[in-house]
Request: fold
Amino acid sequence: MAASATDLETGRLFAEKSASLITAASPAMLEVGCGHGVAAGYMRSLARRLTLIDVDKTAIATLDGRWPGDKNVAIKQCDILAVQGSFDVIYYFLSLHHITNTVAELSAARRLLLRPSGQLLICEYEPVPGKPFHKNDYSPHDGFSHEELIIAASQSGISVSGIYDIATLPHYGTAYNVYVADCRLRR
Ligand SMILES: C[S@@+](CC[C@H](N)C(=O)[O-])C[C@H]1O[C@@H](n2cnc3c(N)ncnc32)[C@H](O)[C@@H]1O
Reply:
């Protein structure tokens, strides 16, 4: 599926903000819910090693061979529970709201982060009352307000150290605010 110009621009803005937030010099990164690779196309240049996972077979198939010369990108069809290893940065680009149990998901991500500097970057949209983002498809959550995300992170052993608005995403005639939450391991 071809990404829209708006999706690509949101991915670019996410990578630009991530570049300014990531503290590790040459990070090993994991993207959960990589979909068709909008964010990965920009994020891969920031990573020493980038692992992309998604539960959807079709999405993973579209990424096969996308970056042929890029030996630092690994692509797997699985969820976070099947991931082994540890990462400087784990990110979710507009994918966390697709995952039913937010606290279980973020708790699993926390266990894969390198201590003490591991970083979780969550890009999400804020819900607009009465205007669900997903109208013609299903998603268990309608984005997350800043407060909802802070509570879910806290329940997962993660602190939100900053939330940054990066874009406005027009969708079905409504403008959704898109932000990046910079999350750290709780000390
Ligand atoms: C809107 S897409 C994300 C866009 C993507 N990050 C990009 O840059 O193109 C949401 C993705 O989350 C995936 N997903 C849903 N539940 C998941 C889970 N438990 N683990 C991993 N991926 C999941 C879906 O299959 C879908 O591809």
Notes: Residues 5-21 form the longest helix (17 residues).
